[in-house]
Amino acid sequence: MRGKVLHFKERGDLAIIPAKIFEYSTDVLTFEINPNAIKCNLYLRVLIELSSNTIATEKKGIARRNYIFDFKINERRNMPEDLVTRINSSDLLKVKNVFLFHVVPYSYTIDFYDSNKFKSIRKIEKEVFAGYTGITELKDTDHIILFNKESDKDSYSFYTCFSSEIIGTKQIVLAIGANILCSLLFAIPGLRLNWDFENLWYVQFPWEWCLAILLLVSLVIYIFKKKE
């Protein structure tokens, strides 16, 4: 396979060429490309398959979940020393343009993005996206695309935050438990006033309280079991 040169009417040619890839370490992939093979722009696209559901840093709250995306390219201050040494001793290609697309569910709230790098936001176009990535399960109304771009830098950094509301079983259980607990606390003064210390406690204890306490204990057990 020798690659392909694409010709455009209103811009320069683009070369798509095969790259020799070998694993340098468990965290680094090195690509060997001969830039002198052809005199035009080179295009490199990498597909990374994740072992988890997201590459974002997740912050979970009671009612909201935050997703923090922090992408860095060639930012050497955060690199291990051995990698910086390897980069300094290599003839690296300069990254002229970086395009970053966030494809997130339509229900997400955009909490932060860098306005200097932000270009556009739009609903996903299913057919175009499927042709580009091969992902066909998405619908036009399911996701949005937030597009960032930066050019002509020695290093690049993109920081974006999204959040989503969490109204699930856990929140409903917590609300029910809080309601039961408050009802029991409000009923204590009345029970104390009518309490006869000469009679057996279980004879005076309302059966409704027994049922409420049993339900409250069950909810607590359910929450801790769900965490495990």
According to DSSP, the number of beta strands is: 12
Helix percentage range: 25-40%
**What's the mean pLDDT score?**
78
Q: What structural category arises from helix and sheet content?
A: alpha+beta
Which range does the strand content fall in? 25-35%
**What are the secondary-structure elements, in order, as H or E?**
EEEEEEEHEEEHEEHHH
How many helices? The count is 5
N-end to C-end Cα span: 51 Å
Strand order of the largest sheet: 6-7-12-9
The main β sheet shows up as: 4 strands, antiparallel
Q: List low-confidence stretches.
A: none
Which shape, going by the Cα principal axes? elongated
Q: Rg to the nearest angstrom? A: 29 Å
Task: Summarize the helices and strands and which ones pair or pack.
Blueprint (H helix, E strand, L loop, with lengths): L3 E3 L7 E3 L3 E4 L5 E4 L8 E2 L14 E4 L3 E10 L7 H8 L8 E9 L3 E4 L5 E6 L2 H8 L9 E9 L4 E10 L3 H25 L7 H4 L2 H21 L1
Parallel strand pairs: 2-5
Antiparallel strand pairs: 1-2, 3-4, 6-7, 7-12, 8-11, 9-12, 10-11
Helix pairs in contact: 3-5
Which keywords apply here?
4-stranded antiparallel β-sheet; alpha+beta; elongated; 228 residues
Quick gist of this model?
With 228 residues, the protein is of the alpha+beta class. The protein is built from five helices and twelve strands. Strand 1 (4-6) and strand 2 (14-16) form a beta hairpin.
